[in-house]
Fold each of these.
Amino acid sequence: MSESGETSNQSSRREAILAGAAGAMAPFALVGSGAAQSKAGPDDPSSPESRTMPLSPKPDYVLDIESKSIAPLGTPTEATLVNGGYPGTEIRYTEGDMFKVLLNNTMQNPCTVHWHGMIVPNYMDGVPEITQLPLGPGESVFMEYPIRQVGSYWYHSHYELQEQQGLSGPLIIEEKRPDHDYDKDVTVFMTDWLNQSPYGIIPQIRDEQTQTSAVKTPVAGGEPFPGDKPFGIDVDYPGYLMNGKSLDDPWTMQVRQGDRLRLRLINGSTATFFRVDLEDHEMEIIAADGQPVVPTRAGNVVIAVAERYDVLVTIKRSGSFTLNAAALGTKRKVAGVLHTPGASRKPAPGPPEWRGPAGGMADYAALKSPYPTVLPDGPVRTFDIELGGKMSGYLWSMANEYYPELYVPEGDASPLQIRYEERVRVRFTNTTMMYHPMHLHGHFYRLLSKPGGWDETHAPLKDTVAVGPGERIDIEFYADNPGRWFFHCHNLYHLAAGMAREVNYIV
Ligand SMILES: [Cu+2]
């Protein structure tokens, strides 16, 4: 047989297989096989010769998760790190990209990584026992999903207390065409650091182990919440870090007079709220939790655990400007320095300047979405969720149920069962003395500026909201991403002591 006859046979067989797969198409496939014979060849993009061997996609980022000792505050401490750094490698994509990240667990312990704020398919969400098995020692997993959003996010371990040991980092999705003009796009990732194992903290609070200075609270005269309300903390950290650098060896960046900066302020801490200000400058908040907001002026931005605020600031003159992050409830701060060429790289000593207005979680009512966020029509389901706890045993609850977490072996919280395409309303009431940064996985929710404000058209979209002592806050979300989703307080010690529920639904 001639070569062309062989090609013809192959082509016909392929068409027949396709036809078999879609029965109704068979007559067209038979007609098509003649056409394929005349065109087939290496130059025809539909010919077998033009294809290449199918290979798995190459990751854009490889995150090697490893155990290592680091000393960001001068005391060597066992850490769990991404690619040996703290914070971990910044993941940066552009709107519309495919997320392609390979995780390698090189440790002796299991781990998982959660992509905070990302609208992911449920099985990519990285919560052990809920959406996946923990990634075992020596195991790898490839995470791939289409990116459906823009903004400032972060990733962190959701396995036990690894987030406190360093497994976290920034995750940025740039707009194809930014809504605002700026010269530099700058990530400011703030964390709290312990010079000891975090696994001792809850036993120390519960008085089951000898207490260290980290749990002797409250701190008299600590940094109050704006308005001079005292701010309660569980852990009194020895120090805080900005982009992995301490106050003594600060993070610095050279800028020029007139530079317009977009600062992506990310609170990647485990249990610390920060009040951020830039010396001698006012900021303009342009996004909250990655989503755009109508720009508002702020002298200070207060950022709850896991929240993000993008701010614009224009460097108004030559000099050295301290970017302060005061840890609420303590007398400590961390700071970095933005300086023009030749100016000092030392942060200003002392407490950060107080300059109004206070933005971020200090004034949620000022956050407005630039576009309407009213949910699509659907049945309404409402949950009243009391944020509570038992201080005698350091246990934290949502609607009087305790999630079976690391320090709650007897927990038996039931899932919040909802249905696909419902409008789900959650009314938080905080009956405790502490703030709770409440985070829902896999969804944005509308944060209402007043309880019961369900008809507000421009409520901001968020994934984390801090509910203060005695406060009532309402949120609502649209159930359009089925799965088992974690819903919890982002203070890691409250989570580990029971403050979590699952939200479940199928189509
Ligand atoms: Cu909490």
Note: The radius of gyration is 26 Å.
Amino acid sequence: MSHTHYVNTLMDEIVSFRSSIAAGNVSPDVTPEEIREHLNNQFDLSQPRMLDAVIRDVADMMRRWSLHTTNPNYFGLFNPNVTEAAVAADALTALYNPQLATWSHAPCANEIEKFTLDFFLRQFGFDPQTSAAHFTSGGAEANHTAVIAALTRHFPSYGNAGIRSLTGQPVLYVSEQAHHSFYKIAHSTGIGRDGVRIVPVDRALRMDIRSLEHLIAADLQNGYIPFMVAGTVGTTPAGVIDPLEDIARSCKKYSLWFHADGAWGGAVVLSNAPQPLAPGIQLADSITCDAHKWLSVSMSAGMFFCRHQHAVGEAFRITASYMPEQVQNTTDLYATSLQWSRRFIGLKVFMTLAERGAGGLAAMVDDEIALGNALREALMLSGWKIVNTTPLPVVCFTHDRFQGNPLPAENLLKKLYADGSLWISGVTIPHYGFVLRACIINYMTTQHDVTRLVTTLDRFLNETTAMD
Ligand SMILES: Cc1ncc(COP(=O)(O)O)c(C=O)c1O
């Protein structure tokens, strides 16, 4: 059995898949039974198989039975195409398998991560000397980390005595368009799901600051303990940026922690736009930004940034005799973050940044913003109605021919998914109900793909509304 043959097979697959992805379908046509039957027939796990053959079969299954988020015609959720650097970095990470829990087990990997995170800290206007930052599995973990750090700072007894030591229920505030991870976080931190206050949004789908302050005042009067507001930089449904400067002002007024959830949209700090696209993000106490969204690295790669080093250290402090001793002037990540064993998440972010440079990443962000504007224009020219306002490339739209009824839009999506050649989503948003949603999330998407999307939508609109 050749030990090197599998590398050639893997390399062939990488090159061939990358060069053919744009020509294939986005959506698969498969049932769970079909995949299960194939696995049962193909893999008699009591018998060994050549790795080479296993790779070929897995590649064949992945090609046939995946929703191809790396296809330039995927205009869906925040799942990007990935850079070649990320593919290489993931292979190198598996090869060396460094353990980043302590600095002493992975000096090179830990310093590469710190070097990369310091770059982003500076982009966000934080001082690397006094701030904390680490990679996470994604935005949900980064938001979770923010809530734990905020609770730890706001309630000195929280860490040891828990929520029951507090004189009232702690509450955090998010807009009705915020990511739903905050419910799971409230559940698991002991705040409870009832401790999440939902702030209404204005017509532009941005957190309504007057409502926020009314809710805070009412909670204070009723014995609740407000401790945090999370504003979103690029909401999941409609890509909207909350009024971050106003949120910062309210947080200052009531001494609350200001978290900016920029899981997708935080990347706009890299943009070369003449005006900052997320003004006020630099005022946050903590920031979530996922490299596995707009920065086009493979999953999982989230980032957490915080200007309160002490709060983060206090939140995750731990010592264990079986862990290696800390090296002077370094951080051991198992004692400053939620995870214990740690994968080298940051390598793909570092290698993507090193290969393309800050200018390359800025161009990626700005090109996708420009294509989002082109999509908006093309849709309007074709008679569609845009219902969200944002400089970012998420476009929510509807058509007068739907007459405010969700059914035609749902039918149109069903037709689109059955066709399989491109993918957009649907979403229900305040003031507008169920609308169609297309996001430019792939750095290989072109003007040609955008034109094709609009032509296809027009065709299905005619079929759908003629049918209804
Ligand atoms: C605004 C926002 N925050 C948090 C998350 C959760 O991120 P992840 O899926 O990386 O955990 C998402 C996911 O799309 C998001 O859009």
Note: Residues 5-69 form one domain.
Amino acid sequence: MRLTTPSAPVDVAALVPELAGQGRTTVRLHPRRGAPAVTESSMGGPLLWPADEAWPYCEASQHADPSGVFGRVAMVPVLQIYARDVPELPFPAATDLCQVLWCPTSHEPDHAPVLHVTWRDSRLVTGVRTEAPEPVESEADYLPLPCVLSPERVREYPSAWTLPESLDERIEDSGWSYQYHLSTAPGTKVGGWVHWIQDPMPMECARGHEMSHLLTVASREHDAESGRAWTPLEEQHLLGPYQVPELQEPADITIGDAGSMFVFVCVTCPDRPVETIVQHS
Ligand SMILES: [Zn+2]
Ligand SMILES: [Zn+2]
């Protein structure tokens, strides 16, 4: 199903000259519960994983038992995105599929899952693994329900945290809030601006390159306030004064207190190292 974000309620770039040239395009993935196939882009869906390739496991020391016996936890699928659906991802040469998994338990320092990203050429996958291994430990908050994706490109502006504090005063007559309605798109998305919930954190890879925002995995697509501007047109009639979990929390995950995981990538390093930050609302 095609989902369409309404036009911005206010042309904020016309009201705030500092925003000139700061518009970026993000790809809202619009996950919605469904039954995706391995050949489709998905959130929490089955991965196109070669039958003869090892599955990723988390080997964090916390998974060892108290006597120090080695333990490991099978990672679970979070996102699978084909280049035909979201060509904006920085696919390394000769790859067309981005697969994101995480270890579904809380880890230090963010009390969040450990993330793993694989890039591959889907055309080279002949025998497909039919079942993913079950994690021996998991927290229900980190087990995404299978969702199909409906990628949509939207224009957005930087988080209020990177702009002068006076900004909301300057647009208060509009009846809209910059952070909630006019800046960065909420929800799970690829590229664009980071929807910082607290102070922005500059990210560098181990070799000192500046990293860029790869994607965001969000607990919610929007809340009651941000939903005033970001609820897709096709779903507005379904939203009353109450939350509708299938629309607002389609994957039924909770990262911290309704927070988001921001995933950064180094596009200079050929192996595309990633780092994550979790912020809570
Ligand atoms: Zn782990
Ligand atoms: Zn690098």
Note: The chain has one domain: 12-279.
Amino acid sequence: MDADIYTQVKASIKRRLQIDLENYKAEQMKRRLDSWLARTHTATWNDYFNLLSIDSTELERFRDYLTINVTEFLRDPNRWATLKENVLPYLLQHSNGVHHRTGGLRLWSAGCSVGAEAYTLAMMMAESAPSHKYSLLATDLDRGALLKAKSGGPYTPEDVRNLDAKQRRKYLTPAPPYFVGEELQKHIRFEEHDLLADRFEDGFDLIVCRNVVIYFTAEAKETLYAKFSAALRPGGVLFLGGTEIISGSAKYGFQNFGVSFYRKVQ
Ligand SMILES: C[S@@+](CC[C@H](N)C(=O)[O-])C[C@H]1O[C@@H](n2cnc3c(N)ncnc32)[C@H](O)[C@@H]1O
């Protein structure tokens, strides 16, 4: 796709879907857009945007594709084990005596897709600190994904493959398609939110933002990490995806806290 067409396509996407591709790496995004157009069997982007204006299902499909909302429960089990064994106990211990507006730990799943990550976090809390109060904000810019997240499903057997038999019994409906039960749902507030444009809440003990920034430009990532740092309380922790590393984390006030974890300096 040449530069002129990309400029036009970006403008149309911004107008119709309110997604600003300016903050996404251009080469990857162009490749993704080219292969999408080829798959939809429309000849030109003009034809495709005409189709979008009359076909709302296609519009949602395009939104899903652009935002790439692949996810699963307990994605990357080793990292979640570290969260459970090291990070949550640290946060629970350090939040004792700290006054929180909402009472208990404040957690945020940023870029939660269809909710698997937020529900995984709620399971960890139920298992690590069953009587501890907490609140969990889960946000994404993808409305369709959030709708599924709020409904607690439906999830496929592949979505839940990393959960053990006990966890499935305890938290999910007995047979596929799986739904998550009310005891996890009641802790979570799902909201539409654009990490690149919207205001952040603050006072978080833990922010989980995994596999979201892969297509963001270096500048967009810098802004985001600075905003995450401001949104954490001192001693709060940022949990990133398996391959995501913050270079020069000290400039945001972060210390390494094990692979994939950064702690805001006290
Ligand atoms: C690959 S999924 C990752 C889901 C989950 N965090 C995980 O690791 O399994 C990426 C999610 O980031 C969301 N996303 C992309 N850009 C975003 C933005 N600017 N603001 C909020 N969410 C965004 C997408 O809608 C998608 O649901």
Note: The pocket of S-adenosylmethionine is lined by residues 67-71, 75, 111-113, 117, 140-142, 145, 194-196, 210-212 (CB under 6 Å).
